Amino acid sequence: MNDMRILERDVDTNDVKIAAKGVQVYYGDNHAIKDVDVEIDDKTVTAFIGPSGCGKSTFLRCINRMNDTIDVCRVVGDIHIDGEDIYDAKVDPVQLRAKVGMVFQKPNPFPKSIYDNVAYGPRIHGLAKNKAELDELVEKSLRRGAIWDEVKDRLDAPGTGLSGGQQQRLCIARAVATEPEVLLMDEPCSALDPIATAQIEELIDELRQSYSVVIVTHSMQQAARVSQKTAFFHLGNLVEYGETGQIFTNPVDPRTESYITGRIG
Amino acid sequence: MTDATMTPESARPSRSLIHEDARTKKRNASERRFRAYGIAAIFTGLFFLVALLAAILSSGLPAFRQAVVEVPFTLTQEQYDAAEKALLKTGIYTDYFVTSLTQTMESEGVEIEFDEKAIERLLGKVGGDLRKFYRANEDQLEASVSFELAAASRVDRYLKGTFAREDLQSGNRFFMPEDFDLIDAMRDAGLIKQVFNWNFLTGVDTGVDNPGGAGIGASVLGSFFMMLVVLVLSLPIGVAASIYLEEFAPKNRFTDFIEVNISNLAAVPSIVFGILGLAVFIQFAHLPQSAPLVGGLVLTLMTLPTIIISTRASLKAVPPSIRDAALGVGASKMQAVFHHVLPLAAPGILTGTIIGLAQALGETAPLLLIGMVGFVARYPGTFVEGFIEPNSAVPAQIYNWAARSDAVFTEKAWGGIIVLLLFLITMNTIAVILRRRFERRW
Question: What CATH number does the domain located at A5-109+184-260 have?
Answer without folding.
Answer: 3.40.50.300
